[in-house]
Amino acid sequence: MAQVPKALTLVRQRTPKTPGKAASNSPIARVLVDTGVFHLDQEFDFLVPEELSEIAKPGVSVRVPFNGRKCEGYIVGRANSSAHIGRMQFLDKVNNETPVLTSNILNLSRTVARKYASNIMDVLRFALPSAVSSVKNVSLSYSEPKPSNNETIKHYPQSYFESLKKGEASHVIWTPLPATEPFQLMAEFCKIRNGNILILVPDSKSVDRCLQVFLASGIGKNICTWSSELTKSQRYANYLEILNGKVQVVIGVRGAVFLPIQSLSLIIVWDEGNDNYSEIRSPGWHTREVAIERTKQEGCSLLLGSFSPSLIATKYLLAGLLKPLNPLRETFKEYSPKFIGITEINSPDQRGRISTKAWKTIRRGLQTGPVLVQVPLRGYIRSLICQKCANHARCQCGGNLVIGSVNKNIVCGLCGIFQSDWQCTFCAGRAFRHSGIGDERTVEEIGKAFPGTPIRNSNQGSMILDEIEETCIVLATPGSEPRAKKGYAAIVFLDSRIPLERSSINAEEQARLNWFSVSALAAKNAEVFLDVVVSDPNFQALLRWDPWYAANRDLLERISLNLPPHFKAVSVIGPHSDVHNMALEFSGKYLVSSLQSTDDIFLSKIILRGTDHQAQELVEDLLNYCRIRSAHGLTALKVRVDPIEL
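RE: above sequence
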């Protein structure tokens, strides 16, 4: 039976709401409006209705009429007059009565927007949390910290700790001792320093570990955390506690750098070279750089910490912007591991993926405690190569052929199609050999060599979070290494050349950071084996436990090649013709790369480079160029200042 259409109803005419009376005191509100239009990032003036005058304070979130639609924004000030010519609109609504945008965070966001050629609203999206109406302010009671009893504090120059006690502002780069817990020393910093402290760590796992160390040190109820593990309500509740000055120590991931901490005296950025500090979304700010800008504005101290400093931090050190905080050299003999490398490539006991040296290191370590083995690849067999011509075995779609751990079948790692009759496209050969061996296959190999010894596997898919206490072999991929309660009795790095051979400008820097950070998990004077030749500069840096040795060498090489961080670099992605025209316009003033292809066949990419003296000018020119394009309604370009990958 056919359905009978519903009767049409008349559209009721809605009478426009009559504007109320403007506030008698400071009737003008200056509002940052989230228009979604790149070049409209200035403040706009609106009238404040009398009924909203009491709650329409600077810092509150509001809704305003803008170009025939309703937009969100933030009041940044009130005034008695306006330079606006013409009819002025009234505020439509105050979304939340709590002022969430402070003047310090507003100024910081403006600075970050200019530094990264961005719109200020794109920065404020990271700085301000979403409001939750049901969340109320919560009163906190504070616990007094215990007296300092960490013996490692005596292994550093005492002048720095004296400056912390006096409240003097300083900017330092800190390289901790191996076989120590960096968070324990951070707890001592918090006990010594007067004022509130912000501690930034690269991931949620580090937030939890830092919190546990602080609780054990006696710093408890005055701590607030900030990470993706928190719910929306928890994040907003913590934000309000911080905003109202109820928190003295904040431990958080990269977004915490914008939190409105009052009386901020010290910012600590741990593992400052970690890629997690680089925001992948526009405008692509870096936590380290935002922290530096914030310390300049608020006059507080900065402590960048890492077992292996980044090249940018090394550049700042050489320029005098940072001072070193290194352990006293006489302490290294007590704490440093004993490093073992490849002395003779053709020697029988040093050949093979797991050489005799590696097996002996594992065996000696198991006599006294747990042993950590790190492999760079996850999975079973991650790549195959032709046995005849040594070219990579690939599927017709272009993906690498891999072998899974379940049924040992050869499949494409990209499309997943089973390859029953593979033939090399270069030499027509059909035999292949394993090239990239993952952690699952390595577990099998080590299990056969050490029957009866417990083997635990930790990777990004199944990470071990608890501390290792029993004697066992822990096999882990980079970033998923658990800590051992008393330190690892031995550490073995396999396939160490793989991270060095990545097609990335930062491959060597990231490999060195991984080796130093993981080697620091070893117990005092434990053995650490790397399957690289001992003449490698990075191995020599480990042998001396001197990350500056290799970092300075790499920085000098970048300077000779006009590469970042010596040169300011900006990547621009957009339609072919637009990027080509931009390259022509900027080529006379800056170094411009040739057009590069991207994953999208309709888009191209260029890299712009300028000297340190041109750095700010380059960013300003890009910002003005993008604003002009936006004003003419042209397609927006994706601009990334200081990209971690070129």
